[in-house]
Design brief:
By secondary structure, the chain is of the alpha/beta class. Helix content is 23%, strand content 19%. The protein starts with a strand and ends with a strand.
Length: 329
């Protein structure tokens, strides 16, 4: 078993595009699993890691970590991302039936609906085709391989049947003894290592790391999403990319819109953490997870590890997938 429990380090803060490039090159995993690989760090998930994770189920208690999919979701009109909240349309309704709408069915009446939504609108995984680095995506594939018909390499469907294993909640907000971390609070490698030590949990190869900042709690207490989507937020600093590379985790997810701290520390590079971890490390990244109920339970029983299951919707060629992940204890 490969385990890591990291403590204090003296990582230098990165504030420039040049620093981002140096770290991206240093941590690059291209060809690590072969020139044809499209899984990245999901390769760390094995039959053994899944069996060990299944043994963590003791109470049969499950926690749904996805937010509801509705027009009242977190997205706001943003010219940079063009994201919007789901549009739910009813095709056939009960009121149609009550009004005697024509039907070719002598007795049976049904309802039907449709939804229009972005794959990154609510709780979701990012595909390895979601972010480019100098014209390349994960494993050196050319960005032009994502066309108007979808991703011909690194599509989200490649993860079908693979996303389950041991989950670990790093409740950084609770470790810091606050309800929620303030927007702009940068979570460092030291914070992650110290939080794991405080919880008494060891990070293992192939883990799904869920990081609670408490920002979803802020949303619930406020009663609206505000600038949650794309606004200032607590999150991971650029330097945590090295922690992720060392620990060999399969995935990192958080309760924020973009996992990394906002505003970014680099004025000349937008979302620098994403630029390093997705196209270079090959990391599976999850966003907009609701970790409140799970966080309360972990605090109550002192157990921060669990079976984690979060299958994708196998949309061929998609660069992301909506999900309703589950933790089981």
């Amino acid at each position: 078993m490969h385990c890591m429990l990291l403590g204090r380090d003296s990582t230098v803060t990165i504030t420039s595009l040049e620093g981002v490039k140096q770290l991206a090159t240093k941590l690059r995993n291209w060809d690590r699993w072969g020139t044809d690989d499209e899984f990245g760090t999901v390769n760390f998930i094995t039959a053994d890691t899944i069996v060990r994770a299944a043994k963590l189920v003791k109470r049969g208690k499950s926690f749904a970590l996805g937010i509801g999919i509705s027009k009242a979701g977190p997205q706001r009109l943003d010219p940079l991302t063009s994201r919007f909240n789901p549009i739910h349309l009813m095709i056939r309704t009960g009121t149609d039936a009550a009004a005697g709408a024509p039907s070719n069915r002598a007795f049976t009446r049904t309802t039907d609906d449709a939804i229009i939504m972005g794959t990154h609108t609510a709780t979701h995984w990012d595909a390895l085709s979601h972010v480019f680095y100098e014209g390349k995506m994960w494993n050196g594939y050319d960005c032009a391989l994502v066309t108007g018909t979808g991703a011909t390499k690194n599509g989200i469907e490649k993860y079908k049947g693979k996303l389950l294993g041991r989950g670990v909640l790093l409740d950084v907000a609770r470790h810091k003894q606050v309800k929620s971390l303030e927007p702009g609070f940068g979570i460092t490698p030291d914070d992650l290592g110290e939080c794991a030590a405080w919880e008494g949990v060891r990070i293992e190869r192939g883990d799904f790391i869920l990081i609670r900042t408490g920002q979803i709690r802020q949303v619930k207490e406020r009663g609206d999403w505000g600038d949650y989507a794309g606004g200032d937020a607590p999150g991971l600093t650029i330097e945590t990319a090295e922690w992720i590379h060392k620990t060999e985790v399969a995935a990192v997810a958080s309760d924020t819109w973009g996992v990394e701290v906002r505003p970014n520390a680099t004025a000349d590079c937008y979302m620098p953490w994403h630029v390093i971890v997705i196209p270079n490390i090959g990391l599976l990244v999850g966003e907009i997870f609701d970790l409140e109920e799970l966080g309360e339970d972990c605090a109550n029983d002192g157990i921060y590890e669990f079976m984690f299951v979060a299958p994708i919707t196998p949309i061929i060629g998609a660069v992301g997938s909506p999900i309703d992940p589950m933790a089981v204890k």
